[in-house]
């Protein structure tokens, strides 16, 4: 079975600084997708960034980028120029390729605080 | 703005009540989901509806009953709930289908959630 581990329950960053959230996963599959979701206090789950396992190039979305290390099964999220609105719970998630019945497997989350 | 719409945003119900949570997606997706989320925990999958077929998480109690009137709607009927069922209920959808190999097709998009309190 696949598992996702987020070893940092809480992180803090100063506004305008850079922070990296860690995520590791375990799988025997070769075809899968990885995601970072953000959940602010409003509790809506918002997609931040996604990565296909077959792509070596790291995904980027504006101030958000990932460091995807497939052999190490690591998928960290880097937030540059942190803003107050980035404060939220961040979930790393794994999904096998191939169909709706494949579950989205979440890590336990990292609560990010942004200090002004 | 999310294209997965959930109503109501907040619901308070007694243990003998019957109520429903409603979800609609406007993206032409073929799969829809209900998740339950307790405070400071990740969401847990309850039901998946894909290509006219409902997949049920066997651990979900029968007091939760999903209904899919059409491919863009997924309701969750609630009956005789317990206080421990109080949680955030998230609806989601994805394009998923046979042969879908794209990341966008495999991405699950969430609604804003429905806060449920059972008293």
Question: Which characteristics define this entry?
Answer:
heterodimer, A: 116 residues, mainly beta, 6-stranded mixed sheet, B: 119 residues, 7-stranded mixed sheet, 4-stranded antiparallel sheet, 1 helix, 11 strands
Level of helix content of chain A?
under 10%
Order of helices and strands of chain A: EEEEEEEEEEEE
- Give the strand content of chain B: over 45%
Q: Helix proportion of residues of chain B, in percent?
A: under 10%
Q: Averaged pLDDT of chain A, please?
A: 94
Give the number of DSSP strands of chain B.
Answer: 11
What shape does the CA trace of chain A take? globular
DSSP, total strands of chain A? 12
The overall pLDDT of chain B, averaged over residues, is 89
Structure report:
The complex is a heterodimer of chains A (116) and B (119). With 116 residues, chain A is mostly beta strands. Chain A is built from no helices and twelve strands. Chain A has strands at 3-5, 10-14, 19-21, 24-26, 32-39, 46-52, 60-61, 64-69, 74-79, 88-96, 104-106, 110-115. In chain A, strands 2, 5, 6, 10, 11 and 12 form a six-stranded mixed sheet that branches. A four-stranded antiparallel sheet of chain A has the order 3-9-8-7, with no helix packed on it. A two-stranded antiparallel ribbon of chain A has the order 1-4. The model of chain A has no long low-confidence stretch (mean pLDDT 94). Chain B is mainly beta. Chain B has one helix and eleven strands; from the N terminus they run βββββββββαββ. Chain B has one helix at 103-106, and strands spanning 4-7, 10-13, 18-25, 31-37, 44-50, 53-56, 64-70, 73-79, 87-94, 109-110, 114-118. In chain B, the strands form two sheets. In chain B, strands 2, 4, 5, 6, 9, 10 and 11 form a seven-stranded mixed sheet that branches. A four-stranded antiparallel sheet of chain B has the order 1-3-8-7, with no helix packed on it. In chain B, a hairpin with a 2-residue loop joins strand 5 (44-50) and strand 6 (53-56). Chain B is globular, with a radius of gyration of 14 Å. The mean pLDDT of chain B is 89. The interface between A and B is medium-sized, with 26 and 32 residues.
